[in-house]
Amino acid sequence: MNSPKSRGPHKRFLIVYFLVQLIISPLFAQRDTITNYYETEQIKLPKGLRAETGGMDFMPDGRLVACFHLGEVMTYNPKTKVWKKFAEGLHDPLGVAAISNTEILVMQRPELTRIKDTNNDGVADVYETVTDDFGMSGNYHEFAFGPLKDKDGNYFIALNVASNGAGIRPEIRGTYDSLSRDGRMYSCVPYRGWVMKYNVKTQKLEPYASGFRSPNGLGFDAKGRLYVSDNQGDWRGTSPLYHVEKDKFYGHVASLIWKKDFPRVKPLSLPVEQLDSMRTREAIAFPHTEIAHSVTQPLLDNTGGKFGPFTGQLFIGEMDYPRLVRLLMEEVGGQMQGACVAFGDGTGLLKGNNRLVFDKNGDLWIGHNDHGWVGDEGLSRIHWKGKVPLEIMAMNLTKEGFELTFSLPVDAKIAANPSLYKFQRYYYKYHRPYGSPKTDVADVAVREVTVSPDGKKVSFKLAELKAGYVYDLKMGELKTADGKLLMNRAIYYTLNKLK
Amino acid sequence: MYKVAFRLFVVLFAFRSWAQSDTTITLQAITGLQFDLARFAVKPNQKVKILFKNEDDMAHNLVITQPDKRLLVVETVIKMGDKAQAVNYVPPMPEVLVASKILVPNTTETITFTAPATEGVYPYVCTYPGHGYVMYGAMYVTTKPLPLLATDPNIPPSRQTLERIPSSPHPFPLEYPLLYRTFMPDCSPAAIAVALSASHAYCFDAGKCYLRYAWRGGFVDNTDHWKGNGNALGKIQGTIYFKDNVTYPLRVGKADKLPEVDFKGYTLTNRLPTFRYAIDGVEVRETLKALPNDEGVSRTFVFSKPTTQTVYLVTQPTDGITYKSSVGKWQNGTLTLPKGTTKCVVTMQAPPVAHGAHHGH
Questions:
Q1: What is the dihedral sign for C-alpha A407, A412, A413, A419?
Q2: How large is the ipTM?
């Protein structure tokens, strides 16, 4: 309770405050926002389309090809804005790759299918099974993702595990094995929980890497490294992105039973320490609720600068927030790790950012989905307006801390102030229960801040650096000399290996 | 307690009698110059509310005429020429019972009227010039069961198989044949439901490569399956008339040895699928078609090369189906196809569709 005496000064303060507001409010009206740089447009949908978007790609002639939950494959001509049916009747298609103007590949629940219009009437008439050489128990959670084409023409696909929220059907496809039926998510038919490679030469589907839960996103970086995302859940403390290499295990235990030479034991009976030692950690952990809830497809910015300054970086979609996430990775000690930062907040983007694809003009198309969970439906297009915003272009680990690189020189007087930066570190547990709280949370003191002479780099010496933690950096208002504001002031670095 | 029960009875009774006195019909103009409902029934003097929706991409109206006056009204409109448009293509004549305005696409009009006291068949029609010869249906004013749909002369001949055309859940109209890969009962998870027409369908197992069952009376309702994450099965609309209870019907070399199967996909010819699969390395193309009057299906098996081994089709003699084949010999329900066979048509005749006495809606 305030004493009566203190009311006078308070009142005076309020009057002054409002006067100041009145004077500076025109300045606020011109405050630098993301809409100065990017704009989002919603694509008008054809009548009757339930736009739960499972996959998107562009045909060579510039038409978008997209597949949807009710089994339709539609094309959209961005010039004429005309939608047309290309194929129909598919089972929950969750990925499409355009081969030509008349041929596509679609990943649907039961198989990878090549779909062709052979009589050139604009509608597909041939549906060829490329591969159905994996099991299906009939459990609804056995979604299938991909295909992602590599430089040799092979295709990567990813197979979800089943959920204990539902059982299996009386008739299944593939050899049944009950060894990992226990647990929240299970794999009871071959290669559920695996990333698979369809070898075009042998025409065989090969097991590639194990340990996945709900790998709803595959993509390559500029060097052709394969990345696969996953969702928070059992054995997933928070949503991760993995750099996937052949024969490695990525942590979700149910799929281990299909690994060659794996002993006939229940994976859940193994000590967590042993499982932990077998797994490859995520390149990036997306702190839950801090930046993402459910990340989707990673996509390389290969636009050559048509989408802004981020060429060579990866974007990844996010289901529950109206945003994308931008990834800043580096190789440390022979492994990929790095930082994630928000992208697209405030551009009018919807939620449910499930699928991403760039068109020839460098616009980023987003296919939305909800699929019975949080999200939105429809299609959006993000367009870069041509000016470079102030953004973090790199976050690199140093021996004593981190170095940030910005897209534009920052005002060194502001940026040199250590109190502008709050570092915190924590980790997410690797364990059987669903998700993990932030664990061993601690503030990390900033010992020294240095701004480079050109104003583009700010480096930090920290009181402590430990492997196995996420380093969470929240910044105050950084700006350029001409008043451009740092668009995203929170960034999260997954530190697996020290320099 | 007694009092409460009595009051409840009164309320229920009142509701019942109200429900009996009024009826609401949803009627849609849909693609292909037709109404989604081929016919409906109301009672004499019943208060009728029709929610008329134009779901097509051209303009339509709804006119109900006196019995047998459909063509007279339609032709009167044509004779009116340019003047017809001003009156929504509804001529001022006593043969018109009730009419809507001309509805542009994606609009709705509610029409309320009292059904005639005289029992009879009152046609409804779109009188937009040219439409009325094919775009019509029948309002039965009656308390009796309706005649067989298959031979009802008061509806367009193309509609004598299906009373209501289901509305499309897609951004395009439903066309038949129609195919859905979905979860189906009594099938592996790689199921394909195929509608030969809106009222005749079968389930092909793409995991096990054979026809599992066939049914008549509708197709499949995927509403629950498409809700959210897809846990529910598709629901069969209609009655199954054939079910394959043999573990696997086709055999190569030996009649008692189950073959290895491999699904290869399908091609569509005028929307009709031909499935491709291999049994013990023998490549097969199978096409199913409806027999006349939907009295079963024909299955055409085409082998990519003349067969080098005997091929068997094993059926269950007690499954109620009459089997015939263009090639080979039958013995105890097993068809033996000699070496060198390239094509075989098997007809599977079922007892005729059991037409129930349909009543209106």
A1: positive
A2: 0.92
